[in-house]
Design brief:
β1 and β2 form a beta hairpin. A two-stranded antiparallel sheet has the order 1-2. It has 96 residues and is mostly helical. The termini are far apart. It is built from 3 helices and 2 strands. It has one domain. Helices cover 56% and strands 10% of the residues. The chain is elongated and about 80 Å long.
């Protein structure tokens, strides 16, 4: 009866080991996306309605306003465009 010896992977050192350790500690990309979406929603609620100006390429001023993402019309827009047009449209193509 012969015995086979299995080689254990080498312990990594240096930069690759650091990258591997950091990679194991960061959360799943979906969790990061949900956290950043919630943070953006809270910031837009707090800053909604503020306006600011910048100088355009022609030298004139351009006025911008921050929209509250949680206002009913904006939530409806997100639902209509993000969910209905993107996800459900691709789902119906996959079925057919």
């Amino acid at each position: 009866m012969s015995t086979k010896t299995l080689k254990m992977p080498e312990k990594r050192s240096g930069f690759i080991r650091l990258v591997e350790q950091v990679g194991h500690k960061i959360p799943d990309p979906v969790v990061i996306f949900m956290f950043l979406f919630a943070l953006t929603a809270v910031v837009s609620v707090l800053m909604g309605g503020y306006t600011f100006q910048s100088i355009g390429s022609d030298g004139g001023t351009i006025e911008y306003s921050i929209k509250n993402m949680m206002a009913s019309e904006n939530v409806r827009w997100m639902f209509d465009n993000a969910i209905l047009k993107n996800w459900l449209a691709s789902y119906s193509r996959d079925i057919n």
